[in-house]
Amino acid sequence: MKRAAGKRKRMAQLLDGKVLSAEVMENLKARVEALKGKGILPGLAVILVGDDPASQIYVRNKGKACEDLGIRSETIRMSGDTTQEELEAVIDRLNKDEGIDGILVQLPLPKHLNEPAALAKIIPEKDADGFHLLNCGKLLCSLPGTQPCTPKGIMYMLKSANIPLSGREAVVIGRSNIVGKPVAMMLLQENCTVTVCHSRTQDLASHTRRADILVAAVGKAKFVTADMVKDGAVVIDVGINRVDGKVVGDVDFENVAPKASYITPVPGGVGKMTISMLMLNCVEAAEKRAAL
Ligand code: NAP
After folding, report:
1. DSSP 45-85
2. How far apart are CA 127 and CA 123, in angstroms?
3. pLDDT in tens, 117-162
4. CATH number of the domain at 149-270, out of 3.40.50.720, 3.40.50.300, 3.40.50.2300, 3.30.230.30?
């Protein structure tokens, strides 16, 4: 069907996580080869406790990314009734393993386990996910440290597209420790004026409509509708929601894309970047080991 003259729908430019993460991985392959030349093989260990189906998929994808890069990967699968002591003993062993540069505890852990205590056990130098309190504190204080992968991937996407950040209004929906808070800190570091919204925010749309850069990290399918988005906004969709067997984001993509200047798809957006940033954190840690 032909569109009426002059009625052509403007569409946002896609921030394509598949393409960008493939570029990151290509670049990392060269860095891995250089490390191998110095006798160093980067290594990532992933600890999975229990049998959460989504976590199983994420862990498999991380192992596959290590394989693609040609780095060592160790997945430690522990039963759902693992005790805190057993989990921390595994972390201790990996802390001491000289061939492991990154340790990641797949979250969420079963309810009976103490997540902050487990994350605090990982030595900060091997904290591949950037969730250790020392690395969180460094981010807060604008000091160099390992940064969490999803927010790091979001910033990578924004910078790769040369999207101006300084002085612009950024609104983040969600205040989790793994996405909302750290991405807000990173946007602040880039001189955005940042608003963080959450479930108690009054009149959410009045905030989101001011956003030049809108990050949705809520976990609710199609939560961000077109009427919540300013014309020309950059929309970053972090959400991963399963609806009728399909993966969808937090943004009503079909109706928001015509209003936005840039938008990330789901799947194929932020999620892809998360894995390549994990690989980047691991390679960076190995490079620090090589420099010792
Ligand atoms: P989370 O810990 O559940 O946090 C969700 C946030 O959304 C909370 O801060 C919550 O506010 C807020 N929220 C909930 N309902 C709201 C409402 N009606 N209005 C405004 N805010 C509301 O989730 P998360 O771990 O940050 O993850 C968010 C989404 O991103 C999920 O879909 C997750 O699967 C996805 N994710 C994707 C990646 C990736 O690689 N693409 C990585 C991590 C997470 P309160 O704090 O007040 O409860």
Report:
1. EEEEES--HHHHHHHHHHHHHHHHHT-EEEEEEE-TT--HH
2. 6
3. 999 999 999 999 999 999 999 999 999 999 999 999 999 999 999 9
4. 3.40.50.720
CA 139 from centroid of its chain's CA atoms = 15
Query: Could you check whether 39-126 and 149-270 share the same CATH topology?
Result: yes
Q: What are phi and psi of 197, to 5 degrees?
A: -105, 155
| Spatial contact of 157 and 273, defined as CB atoms under 8 Å apart | yes
Whether 56 is catalytic is no
* Known catalytic membership, residue 230: no
Catalytic residue (one of 129, 212, 237, 252): 129
Class of the 39-126 domain?
alpha beta
194/96 Cα distance (integer angstroms): 40
Question: What DSSP state is assigned to residue 124?
Answer: G
Query: From the CB of 216, is ligand 1 less than 6 Å away?
Result: no
| Integer Cα distance of 65 and 32 in angstroms | 13
**Structure confidence by residue, pLDDT tens digits, 21-66:** 999 999 999 999 999 999 999 999 999 999 999 899 999 999 999 9
What are the angstrom distances between the C-alpha of 126 and each of 8, 33, 269, 284?
A: 51, 20, 26, 10
Rounded to an integer, what is the distance from CA 283 to the centroid of its chain? Answer: 16
Q: In angstroms, how far is the first alpha carbon of the chain from the final one? A: 64
Upstream peptide bond of 124 is cis (omega within 30 degrees of 0)? no
Hey, where are the domains in the chain? 39-126, 149-270
Q: How far apart are CA 79 and CA 77, in angstroms?
A: 7
- Ligand 1 contact, 176 CB (< 6 A): yes
